[in-house]
Every structure is written in C-alpha cells, then in structure tokens.
Amino acid sequence: MARVTVFASGNGSNFEAIVKALQGTSHRVVCLISDNEKAYALDRARRLQVPYHVFPFRTKTERRDSEEKILNLLRSYGTDFIALAGFMKLLSPLLIDAYPNRIVNIHPSLLPKYPGTQGIRDSYLSGDRELGITIHYVDYGLDTGPIIAQRSFHRIGTETIEEIEEKIHALEHEVYPKVLIDLLDALEQNK
Ligand code: GRF
Fold this sequence. Notes:
Blueprint: E1 3-7, H1 13-22, E2 28-34, H2 40-48, E3 52-54, H3 60-77, E4 81-84, H4 93-98, E5 103-107, H5 119-126, E6 130-137, E7 147-154, H6 161-189
Parallel strand pairs: 1-2, 1-4, 2-3, 4-5
Antiparallel strand pairs: 5-6, 6-7
Helix pairs in contact: 1-2, 1-6
The structure holds 5-O-phosphono-beta-D-ribofuranosylamine (GRF).
C-alpha cells in the first residue's frame, strides 16, 4: 500500500476524486494538507473521513516553519507520495528534496503553455483550438517540472469559459487519479 498526502487550497474536487478512486485500490490518501482554513476541501475531508491539517504559507518565514512541521507530519503518516491538487503556494526545496520524483501536480492547461494561477482563463482567451490538462512532477519552478501525462480536447469555439472550465475539470477528475494509481503501483513494485 502506498500512502498519499494531498495538498489543496480551495475547492478540493480533485482531492475528492483521488480519495474515491484510491478506495478501489491498495493505496490510500492518508491526509490532506491545506494553507487555507476556509478551503472547501476541508469540508470534503471531514465528509470523506480523511484527516486534515492547515498551515499558513503567507510569508517565506511562515512557509519555512510550516514546511518543517509538514515534513514531520508526513513522516508520522508514513507518506510515500504527494499529490498537489489546486495547492496555490510554491513548495520550497526543503519539501521538494525530501520527496524526489514523488511529488506531482495537476495543471489545467497544456504546459508549457499557460503556467500560473490562470491556466484556464489564459487557455480560453488564447483562442487555441486544442485545450487540455497536464500532470507533471514538481520541481523548484512554477509548473515547470517534467511532464508525466497530458490529455486534450478540441473546442468548437462557441463554448463559454464556464463550459470550458467544466470540461477541463471533468478531464482532471478522470485522468489524475488514473495516472496517480499507475505511479503508486510502480512505486510499490520498486519497493
Ligand atoms: C484544478 O483546475 C487544477 O488543475 C488546478 O487547480 C484546480 C483545483 O481544483 N491546479 P479543485 O480544488 O481540485 O476543485
């Protein structure tokens, strides 16, 4: 069994999709970490009975202190793998180096196009015909790590941004858990 900790700052729909998908496997989401005490992801965690912890990340000092505490917590949960799912803060080398090739992120654009917090809006406004999502390893940069998987779709051109957003999220919920399960299976086999 691989133990996964998910990081989320907001809605947490990907967090929930991951928890549910892993219930059908030998792997488990052992805990949720957030930087936002008002995140709806925390309500989902309560409902799904996943333990959660909130740490502030507002300044560099807070981030350093929080990451030190998070590292201890991850060890106490026996975390093998970290999945970022709408976590809106950059992690520092302290955490990233503690989990080499074991931290992944989901981004709502076809990276390297449209990194950053406005991936859906920027994709939509680009006029690109092909839109999609990316799952990638996390490195020190903003949405820059090696790409693991991408899925795309063609837009008709008449969709509203809300419709595009809905399509992107549906694709995320379908693909992210699957890719994660493949990575966790591989991790287990190499243990
Ligand atoms: C997703 O679109 C993800 O790609 C991006 O943040 C959003 C999180 O959505 N990184 P949710 O919190 O999982 O609903």
